[in-house]
Amino acid sequence: MRGNVRADGDVVIAADGGLDGNLRADGAVVLESGADVDGNVTVATHVMLDSATEIDGNLEAGGDVLLDGDAHVDGNLEASRYVVLVEGASVDGNLTAGDAVHLGVNTDVDGNVTASSVQLDSSATVAGNGTGDATRID
């Protein structure tokens, strides 16, 4: 699909689907496996990126953000509450969470991480500065 999307509720981009434009939703957003958005995503509540999904733009959420295995954000990611990156997920940009960040096994952030609490699994990497109480889990 091409063009900007404005939704009053939840948005689901089906598996292997895509959007070439900005997305703004008053509800939650789910990108199913293999889906991608080439544009900025602004969500009033929560965001879930299933495995092998990609956002090529900034992601801003008024709630929590979950990036499942091999999901990728090529831009800054900001969430009002929590951000969780599951094995293989990555962010090429700054990551900011109002409460906490958990970086799982083999996750990567190429930018700064800012949150009250940051938890990193043993093989998680951050190529930038960190702000907040950080804990490394071995």
Automatic annotation (TrEMBL):
Domain of life per record: Archaea
Gene3D superfamilies: Hexapeptide repeat proteins (2.160.10.10)
Descriptive protein name: Polymer-forming cytoskeletal protein
